[in-house]
Amino acid sequence: xxxxxxxxxxxMHKNNSEAMQFVKLLKVKLVGYKxxxxxxxxxxxxxxxxxxxxxxxxxxxxxxxxxxxxxxxAFTGEVSAEMLLSCGCDFVIIxxxxxxxxxxxxxxxxxxKVKKALSCGLKPIVCIGELLAEREANQTMNVIExxxxxxxxxxxxxxxxxxxxxxxxxxxxxxxxVATPEQAQEVHAFIRKLISELxxxxxxxxxxxxxxxxxxGSNAKELLSQKDIDGGLIGGACLEADAFKEIIEIAESLG
Length: 255
Ligand code: 13P
Prior knowledge:
The radius of gyration is 17 Å and the shape is globular. It has a single domain, classed as Aldolase class I (TIM Barrel, Alpha-Beta Barrel). The protein has 255 residues and is α/β, with parallel strands linked by helices. An eight-stranded parallel beta barrel has the order 1-2-3-4-5-6-7-8, surrounded by six helices. Strand 3, helix 3 and strand 4 form a beta-alpha-beta unit. Bound molecules: 1,3-dihydroxyacetonephosphate.
């Protein structure tokens, strides 16, 4: 059985002191939740401070929101995988739709970032998902197939099992418009089928696929109960401790 993973993508919110204060609170509120893997992803500048607060946490892990695919050099404004590791990160979000939309990330750069992260021992949370226009044009599965195949390009079986996929329909992000459990399950099952074709059924059964897009306490149970939904990548609802805790409690109750 796949362990559920709930990750909070803080996006561009919370400065250093706000981040430290918040994670101190989270640490207390989330103590004892062991069945679910919990990850917080603050902005780069808060990673080290948040890690210092989490040093004695038994169950909250640290992730970053982006990484560069080069090791070092003249890449102003970029951060390498090794730098993230040195801040105490276990995870890194790669290819979020906001990065694809506003910062020109492509299927190819996403694949390069995934390879780099894995080679350093960071676990990628790789985001895929269709735009509203693509869903309306019945292109969802084509887009998902293209993105999924591209992200796995050149990865060994062993590398593939280390990553987490986040299916985030772009039209559901920050809009309050959540995908129905049936819509989400359909795409998750499709992604798992693609992985079994790319690798094997065994590998497809290991890889976790999170749902992201307006997930909150009131809809998490239905979504997380679906056979192929193994967790959530949470935006808005992870910025408030009780709202984030509510989702984690639901994941715990579902095992
Ligand atoms: P919301 O939960 O705010 O819709 O954001 C989802 C998201 O983009 C997580 O990466």
